[in-house]
Amino acid sequence: MAASGIVFVLFVLVHMYGNLKAFSGEVAFNEYAHHLRIFGEPMLPENGLLWIIRIVLLVSLVAHVGSAVALMRRARAQRPVKYQVKRNNASSLSSRTMRWGGLTLFVFLIWHLLNFTIVKINPAGDQSADITENPYRLMVSSFDLWWMTLIYLVAMLALGFHLHHGTYSALQTLGWVNSASARAKAKIAGWVIAIVIAGGFSLVPLAVLFGVID
Amino acid sequence: MNLTLKIWRQASSSAPGGIHTYQLGGVSEDMSFLEMLDLLNEELVTKGEEPVAFDSDCREGICGMCSLMINGQAHGPEVTTTCQLHMRSFKDGDTITIEPWRASTFPVIKDLIVDRSAFDRIIQSGGYISANTGSAPEANSVPAPRDKAMHAFNAATCIGCGACVAACPNGSASLFMGAKITHLGDLPQGQPERYSRVVGMVAQHDHEGFGGCTNIGECTAACPKGIPLDVISQLNKDLRTAMVHGF
Question: What does pLDDT average to over chain B?
Fold first, then answer.
């Protein structure tokens, strides 16, 4: 769970950085998107790096979901009779929403890939190649719709929650939080990662919606 | 003070259980929680009813026998054991729900009494040091650094009451295991069996059916001895080292 989670944290960090290229304009953004495809040529074939990353992500996803399901099954089997009254005294909201939040992210991921990678759906309607094969135009066209921006912001809220507990939890699972001061630092790391990544991702759709990017 | 008590009654481990409601008057705020239950039981016996079965032994907060979920909190609202919880923590007219620990690894024997033998089996699978029996060794012959000794002692205050398992949404016993791993792993005497210990204890923990730890921290908040989450990180670190070295 922790190892696959760290793969995702590193991935979303780089992904978020790439998205911020939108602030440099259409040429820079599309150049970045194109460069990802030819990264490492001629040592790697076209899309070589992308496929390596996709396979690593897919394996991590299977490991992450598999671990989550195993944990959930063990927890259910362990407490067949529920408490009549149960209070949460210490757990954060983010830690208690890991399962539903994870499911939210999974559903979002399917739409996100259909939107920008697998099918390249323009939710605004115009499915011509001028837009769907131009990453920058497809992005602007998508986030010009308020409800698309809303979907992405909700997903980023879920991502922020997931990263807040996930980062801290991964450090704890890997055995790196062995003192009170290390715990304080690990909790701060959770906040920083969550705010930087979810906040960084949210900037682009908000900028499109408010006309900063067009 | 007058109280409304909602208490889980269950005749045996195989019988279905349910909540029964009792009205209890004449409770003094100086009574311990268990003395309040004693008072209820005296009334029940006088009326010819079956008294409520609950566990207790030392009644001074060190044995780990008392184990009640009180209004959804293990050992009730204070950071202490149920026997050291006093009725001054409640108000006149309060409704108090009392349940046993809920975990398939801690089956209910009767009413509020659960069987915590699973903890004993975890300890038996590594939570000890092998030493020759006979006269006690000279205490100062194996020096331990003071900070390590204090850290070990803090972890050793675990009384094995099971509140960590009861409070954990996953029903994990990681805090219990981590306390023993940290206690013995900090001291020179614990080193020879350090890595076989963690592997053995975790294997028995999982075999018993305890849940996995998701680091949410309900266990440490419920622990009457305030054992910190650090011990779970230490458990994970020792387990990682053991796996790397092929234990």
Answer: 96
